[in-house]
Structures are given as structure tokens and as C-alpha cells.
């Protein structure tokens, strides 16, 4: 498609701008939008320094290759600024003139609600501005006849995650990483000196960063704008922190949002919180204000994914003639969403106005589900002991928690949340160490509130895990369940957990006493090879380990020599890590077991990318390979093929990431996911306890950010036991994005250059 054959009601040429505060991931969105626009054969521009650049004509054409190495860079390559002139109508008229002069009638606008409102205003005034410019003689009628409408689409770029209409904004996950890493690190020095720390985080009037960081790090006290503190909050805070100290905690963390206030609207400052802790509890208390470090650095795996997918969809939306009004492209879970821009911005403004009027009930009501659930979760987990323990109430039911399968980052976060949520409901909690085998061998321990203290940020699986299934000794498993008087079992794990629970459920026919056992499973595996869920606990840590490695690999060859890197990742026969890793690392290609790779496919890849090395500048190509792509073409064989088929002077290197993908502390994404599954698991078993004779089992999963349930009998037909992956792999549709953004779609200059190179190569062979 070219500009001469465009569909009606679509733009001729587009421009991309970033405005307002910068956010990690903006460059990934810019890259995705530019390359998608070139896929549509559109002339593509960038506007430097936001709306100010639009007025000052700071507009440059960008080609495909101009955004080759920006995916992993923080900030925004094209600059950003707030423009007072754009708030004036005369400034917007000048902006319209510069756009039309360049033939631009489509915009991808990346920023916050103010940025999106600016685009909405310009779009609504567009016809008026063009008519004035024609009357003034600055534009001709011919120039404006085919550009009677300004098309635009919005992407929300903000670390505050404060945009209505999307669950996640570009940059928020990265900022949350920075905060959680800081709190995790500070907790170690705080424990050494038995200190308290007040951590002030950004967010303006939105407490998302403060809330989520408090939940996932196990902070002792939280102060956010949406949940203002009452008159005696100082006494309540000191009581909570003191109880924690009496229970054995050696450090205390208070997380405070920069826009925090009390119910009367009075600001609450970090220095005041410090003074309260020092005077009332005599604690050595320090204040750490993280500030702009939260904005900086490379984007996380999730922000790269979010920005990439929404950047592609933004241009596709612009080019869809059926879309009648500007859209905000957002993300829920791992699925993109689209809602009209103007209602979303107006809703944001209503929320801001309600906050100024101290109408916090309205503010909380308009927050997305995850915010409200995590606020509820935090209020349970922060206490030093559950309410039932305080009243010495006897436990009504016994809940056992365990893991089956390989360890995954976030399992300990899950155990902590399940334990404390269960105790808060008055249940007895048994921790089974080592799955079904641990149950058989009496490796069972009753857990109290402080048994899981400090577990939130821990990687690995402290309870231990293995792949043993109950069918190997089902009779003994049932005897042990009766011996410990277990009423519910909460599992976390991967393929074996699903398989083992299915066996346990099927055994109800032989062992009727199992009908009184409630069973629930939460998915946890870095491979994401489980059916009926978009994602599992642990995938985000593994993906961040992957992009950390590929970023370093790419840096190792800058300015050195032409290189091709073959990076092998984990996943068994499931290609999720390889395909997702290819997309978010900016790789030129991927190899998956699902594609049944052949030699001709490898040669085709090499043929397509030879053009990259047809210049004097050092070049680099990256391919991500699933560890079980092919028994005929393992990594070392693939390296030999690449070596043989490439030109002299091109070095082919391999890297096997291996178990490094399993390691490290769980990311905020994994901890939030674990907490959500834990809350849903305890809610499920609580409902099952209302049934005395027949209790059900369920497999939890996510779909578009929501947790949903699949019955245990229904899960087996969705499992491919030969290759240990789902029958339906939703993420295979991501191949469309990966192919579109790879170097297979070339600019005309590079295409001509490559064709000439191929012609010369053919002649030399003759």
C-alpha cells in the first residue's frame, strides 16, 4: 500500500511525538510505530520536543533503519517538553501549518492525559485552522483538500500508571522495578542496624507505585492519596510497626507517595513520618526520596512488550478506515485494548477533580480492579499477626500449600500471601515441603504468621519442589491427607502440578473421602507452557533475565566487527520464551519447535539478512532459539550452518542462557501476579468450605488481566503431553509482530541496495 492507494478516511503520512514527562519504553513505541508505518509504505516523521517542536517545525523524516538500536534505551530519543504556546489557539494554528506543509495528517501521540487532550483539541480545530491558513495565503486549497481531517491515536506514556482506559501505561513497570529494587536493597541494611526507613516514591496524585511497591516488598506501612489517613493515623502506624518489632522483625519500611495527604487534605511529608517514628518509637529512622531515578534506565521486559505491541496497533488503528474516532491503545495483562481517547481523558479529569475535593470514595471506585484488590491485599498482609490469632480463636479448617514441578520466581511470594490470607480467615496452615513426595514422607510443617516473614522478594522455592506425581503412591497420599486433616490443598507449579492434581481429582472415584477436599492450582513456570492462562508466575523474571543478557550481547559488538549471535533460551518444547524474547530484544529472527524447522528455513533467514553486512559499518544480527527447536539442528549444528553460509569476516557466536533464566528475585510483575492468584485461591477455598460433602477443584488462569477458572476435568484435553505445552498457544499470534518489526521489511533504499548486492553475488558465482 502506498499513499496513492490509501483507503479513504486514513492518513497520507504520519508523525510521532512524545510529550510531557518521559517514560522508559517510549523509544520502543517509537520504533514499533515507525516500522509499522513503513510496512504500510507511509512517509514517517518524528516531532522533536513534543508540541513545542510541532510549533517550531522541529520535524524530521525517519526511515526504517533510523530506529534500529533504540528499543532498549530509556527516555525518549526524540525529546519531550511541555509547551505553553500550544495551549494558545495561535500556537495550535502554527502547528497545523507545519504538519500540512509536510503532508502530515496522522499522529501517534505518546504521553499523559494532558498530551492526549492537546491532540484532541487540535483535531477538533483542524478544519478551522486550515481554512484560516488558506485565507492568509500560507496554504493552498489543493494542499488541504485531501487533508481535511487530523487522524490521531494515543498511547499512554507515564510512570504513574494514572490513565483511565488502560490497566498499564508505558513506563510504570520500569519505575516499579526501580522502587522495588531500592526497597529490597535498603531492607538488608535496615535489618543490619535495626533501622526504619521512609521511602518516598513518585506518582503525583496517583498512589499506584506506592501501593504496588508496598504490597510486593512487604512494607509495614503505606501512605497514598487514594486512601487518606484518619485523625489518629500516627498512633495506628506506630502500633503496627511496634507489633512487628515485637514479633521479631528487625527493620521497618514505610512507603509514602509524594502526593499523600490525610482525610482533611493536609499533605503528609516523609520528614514528618520520620519524626513520628523517632519520637514515639525511638527508632533510628532514615528518609530515602528516590526521585527521578524511577524514570531512568532501560525499560523492563514488560514495558518493551507493552510499548511494542501498542506501537504497532496504534498505526494499524490509524490505517483502519472503520475506526471513526481517535483511540487510546492500552494493555490489560498481555492483551492490547482500544477505547476512545476523549472519554478516557475526560474520566481522568473527573478523577483528578474528585481527588482535589477529597472525594476519595469516587476515586477508589473509578480505579481498575487490580488497584482495589491490591489495596485489600495489602491491608491484610501488613499486620504483624492476623485478627483470629489476637482473639485466640480455634481454626475451623486446615489448608495445605505446596509446589509441584520446577521452581519459578514468585513462588515464595505466593506462599507468603496464601499463608497470611488463610490465617486471617481463621484457617490452620500446613506447608508441605517438596510436593506430593514431601506429603508422603511427612515433610509437613504448620506455619504461623511470621513463618513467611521476608519471603515476598525471595527467588527460588523455599519450600522445595519436585516433579513426583501422586499416582505413584495414591493410597499413601490419601492416607496422609486424612492424617493431617487437610480440608483444602493449594498448589503452585507447572505442567506436573496440573497433571498431578488431575490424577488426584480422578482418584475420587476410588477414594470417596477426596470429595471433601477442595483443590486449587496457580500456574507458575518460566516456560509459560500451561493451558487456559495468558501468563504464569515466573515468566517476567525469566524474560527480564533474557533481555538483560541480550542487551549486553549486543553491546559487546558495538563498533567491533560483523557478528551474528545465536541465543538459546529455555522453555522445553514450548516456544514462548523464544518468541517473546525475540520480540522484546529486537532480534532479527527466532526458531521454535512449533515451526518444525527445516534447513531451507535457516538458509532463507540467512539470505534475507545478508544485506545487513553489505556495508563498511560493523553490523549485528541476533536470533533467539528455543532449546528444543530441532533434534536435527541443535545449537552447535546451527552455528556451523551459519558459519558456512555467511561471508568471510562475519563471526557467528552462540550463547546458552540456561538456568540463569530461573534465577533472581521475582519481579514486581511476578509478585503482583502471585498475590492476585493467592487472593483468588483463598477466596475459592473459603467458598468451598461452605459445602460439607462435595468440594470442587479448579485451575486458575489469566485472560486479559482477569483471573478465571477452569475445572480440573476440562484442563486435560487442553494439554499436549507429548511436547508438554498447551494444545492452543495464544502467543503464537505474536509472530505477526515479530515478523513485521524484523528487518524483512526494508526501506526502498535498502531494498535497492540489497537487490544490487544479490545481483552482484549471482554474477560472481557464475
Oligomer: single chain
Strand content: 15-25%
The largest β sheet comes out as: 7 strands, mixed
Distance between the termini: 36 Å
Number of helices: 26
Helical residues, percent? 40-55%
How many whole angstroms does the radius of gyration measure?
A: 28 Å
Number of strand segments: 24
Mean pLDDT: 91
Structural class: alpha/beta
Spatial order of strands in the largest sheet:
3-2-1-4-5-10-11
* Overall body shape: globular
Unreliable segments (pLDDT under 50, ≥5 consecutive)? Answer: 761-766
Can you tell me about this structure?
By secondary structure, the chain is an alpha/beta fold. It is built from 26 helices and 24 strands. The protein has a seven-stranded mixed sheet with strand order 3-2-1-4-5-10-11, sandwiched between helices. A seven-stranded mixed sheet has the order 14-13-12-15-16-21-22. A hairpin with a 4-residue loop joins strand 23 and strand 24. The longest helix is centred in the N-terminal third of the chain and has 23 residues, at 113-135. The two termini are 36 Å apart. Mean pLDDT is 91; it is low at 761-766.
Features:
26 helices; globular; alpha/beta; 766 residues; 7-stranded mixed sheet; disordered C terminus; 24 strands
Structure in a nutshell:
The chain has 766 residues and is an alpha/beta fold. Helices cover 42% and strands 16% of the residues. The strands form five sheets. It has a seven-stranded mixed β-sheet, sandwiched between helices. Strands 14-13-12-15-16-21-22 form a seven-stranded mixed β-sheet.
Amino acid at each position: 500500500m502506498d499513499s496513492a492507494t490509501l483507503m479513504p478516511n486514513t492518513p497520507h503520512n504520519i508523525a510521532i511525538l512524545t510529550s510531557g514527562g518521559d517514560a522508559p519504553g517510549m523509544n520502543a513505541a517509537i520504533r514499533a510505530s515507525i516500522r509499522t508505518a513503513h510496512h504500510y509504505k507511509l512517509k514517517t516523521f518524528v516531532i522533536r520536543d513534543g508540541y513545542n517542536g510541532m510549533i517550531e517545525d522541529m520535524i524530521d523524516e525517519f526511515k526504517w533503519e533510523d530506529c534500529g538500536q533504540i528499543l532498549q534505551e530509556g527516555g525518549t530519543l526524540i525529546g519531550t517538553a511541555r509547551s505553553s504556546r500550544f495551549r494558545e489557539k495561535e500556537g495550535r494554528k502554527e502547528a497545523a501549518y507545519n504538519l500540512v506543509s509536510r503532508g502530515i495528517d496522522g499522529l501517534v501521540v505518546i504521553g499523559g492525559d494532558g498530551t492526549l487532550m492537546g491532540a484532541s483539541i487540535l483535531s477538533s480545530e483542524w478544519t478551522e485552522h486550515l481554512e484560516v491558513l488558506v485565507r492568509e495565503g500560507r496554504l493552498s486549497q489543493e494542499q488541504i483538500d485531501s487533508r481535511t481531517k487530523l487522524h490521531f491515536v494515543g498511547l499512554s506514556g507515564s510512570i504513574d500508571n494514572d490513565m483511565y482506559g488502560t490497566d498499564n501505561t508505558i513506563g510504570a513497570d520500569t519505575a516499579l522495578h526501580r522502587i522495588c529494587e531500592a526497597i529490597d536493597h535498603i531492607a538488608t541494611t535496615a535489618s543490619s542496624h535495626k533501622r526504619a526507613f521512609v521511602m518516598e516514591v513518585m506518582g503525583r496524585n496517583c498512589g499506584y507505585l506506592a501501593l504496588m511497591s508496598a504490597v510486593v516488598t512487604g512494607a509495614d506501612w503505606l501512605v497514598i492519596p487514594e486512601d487518606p489517613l484518619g485523625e489518629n493515623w500516627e498512633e495506628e502506624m506506630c502500633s503496627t510497626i511496634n507489633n512487628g518489632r515485637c514479633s521479631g522483625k528487625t527493620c521497618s519500611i514505610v512507603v509514602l507517595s509524594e502526593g499523600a495527604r490525610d482525610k482533611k487534605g493536609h499533605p503528609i511529608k516523609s520528614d514528618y513520618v520520620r519524626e513520628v517514628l523517632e519520637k514515639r518509637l525511638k527508632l533510628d529512622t532514615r528518609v530515602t526520596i528516590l526521585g527521578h531515578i524511577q524514570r531512568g534506565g532501560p525499560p523492563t521486559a514488560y514495558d518493551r512488550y507493552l510499548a511494542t505491541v501498542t506501537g504497532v496497533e496504534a498505526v494499524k488503528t490509524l490505517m483502519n478506515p472503520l475506526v471513526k474516532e481517535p483511540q487510546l491503545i492500552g494493555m490489560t495483562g498481555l492483551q492490547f485494548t482500544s477505547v476512545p481517547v476523549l472519554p478516557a481523558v475526560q474520566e481522568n479529569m473527573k478523577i483528578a477533580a474528585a481527588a482535589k475535593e477529597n472525594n476519595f470514595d469516587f476515586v477508589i471506585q473509578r480505579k481498575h480492579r487490580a488497584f482495589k484488590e491490591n489495596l485489600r491485599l495489602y491491608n491484610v498482609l501488613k499486620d504483624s499477626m492476623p485478627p483470629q490469632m489476637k482473639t485466640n480463636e480455634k481454626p475451623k479448617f486446615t489448608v495445605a500449600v505446596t509446589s509441584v514441578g520446577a521452581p519459578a520466581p514468585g513462588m515464595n511470594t505466593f506462599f507468603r500471601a496464601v499463608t497470611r490470607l488463610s490465617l486471617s480467615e481463621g484457617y490452620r496452615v500446613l506447608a508441605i515441603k517438596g510436593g506430593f513426595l514431601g506429603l508422603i514422607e511427612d515433610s509437613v510443617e504448620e506455619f504461623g504468621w511470621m513463618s513467611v516473614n521476608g519471603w515476598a522478594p525471595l527467588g527460588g522455592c523455599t519450600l522445595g519442589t519436585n516433579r513426583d506425581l501422586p499416582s505413584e503412591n495414591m493410597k499413601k497420599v490419601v492416607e496422609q491427607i486424612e492424617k493431617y486433616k487437610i480440608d483444602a490443598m493449594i498448589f503452585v507449579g507447572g505442567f506436573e502440578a496440573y497433571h498431578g492434581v488431575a490424577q488426584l481429582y480422578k482418584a475420587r472415584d476410588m477414594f470417596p473421602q477426596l470429595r471433601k477436599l477442595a483443590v486449587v492450582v496457580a500456574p507458575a513456570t518460566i516456560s509459560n507452557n500451561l493451558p487456559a492462562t495468558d501468563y504464569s508466575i515466573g515468566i517476567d523474571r525469566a524474560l527480564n533475565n533474557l533481555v538483560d543478557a541480550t542487551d549486553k550481547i549486543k553491546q559487546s559488538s558495538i563498533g567491533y566487527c560483523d557478528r551474528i549471535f545465536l541465543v538459546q533460551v529455555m522453555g522445553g518444547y514450548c516456544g514462548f520464551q523464544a518468541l517473546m524474547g525475540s520480540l522484546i530484544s529486537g532480534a532479527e529472527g527466532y526458531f521454535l519447535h512449533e515451526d518444525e524447522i527445516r534447513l531451507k528455513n535457516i538458509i532463507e533467514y540467512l539470505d534475507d539478512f545478508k544485506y545487513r553486512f553489505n556495508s563498511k559499518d560493523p553490523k549485528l544480527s541476533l536470533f533467539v532459539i528455543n532449546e528444543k527447536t530441532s533434534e536435527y539442528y541443535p545449537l552447535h549444528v546451527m552455528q556451523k550452518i551459519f558459519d558456512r553460509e555467511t561471508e568471510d569476516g562475519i563471526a557467528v557466536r552462540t550463547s546458552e542462557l540456561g538456568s540463569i533464566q530461573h534465577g533472581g528475585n521475582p519481579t514486581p510483575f511476578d509478585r503482583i501476579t502471585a498475590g492476585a492468584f493467592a487472593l483468588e485461591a483463598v477466596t475459592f477455598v473459603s467458598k468451598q468450605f461452605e459445602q460439607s460433602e462435595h468440594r470442587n477443584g479448579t485451575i486458575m488462569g489469566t485472560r486479559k488481566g482477569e483471573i478465571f477458572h477452569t475445572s480440573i476435568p476440562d484442563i486435560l484435553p487442553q494439554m499436549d503431553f507429548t511436547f508438554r505445552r498447551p494444545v492452543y498457544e495464544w502467543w503464537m499470534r505474536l509472530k505477526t509482530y515479530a515478523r513485521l518489526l524484523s528487518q524483512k521489511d526494508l526501506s526502498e533504499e535498502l531494498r535497492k541496495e540489497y537487490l544490487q548486492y544479490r545481483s552482484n553475488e549471482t554474477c560472481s558465482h557464475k
